[in-house]
Amino acid sequence: xxxxxxxxxxxxxxxxxxxxxxxxxxxxxxxxxxxxxxxxxxxxxxxxxxxxxxxxxxxxxxxxxxxxxxxxxxxxxxxxxxxxxxxxxxxxxxxxxxxxxxxxxxxxxxxxxxxxxx
Length: 118
Hints:
By secondary structure, the chain is mostly beta strands.
């Protein structure tokens, strides 16, 4: 059985899931970024399906890019230009092709955190 990749975005400033936030997934290979998926979070702050499903899952280095600036502007949290946070990139490795990797983002206008979830 092969694994899969999911994500979840929570707006910690508002205490709500971050609905409508665009996420792009890249595979990092030989110095290049190859786009694999582009999705938008639903009302629960998740994508409607795994951002990297079992069929495309492989070990390697990846990057999730969260369009935080667009989301913050849309929710009235942007503040003065330029934004402190605009695109939030998270680079990570997948070493176990049979595991579920969950990479959540906790987001506010002036900070973020992530971890390997379950």
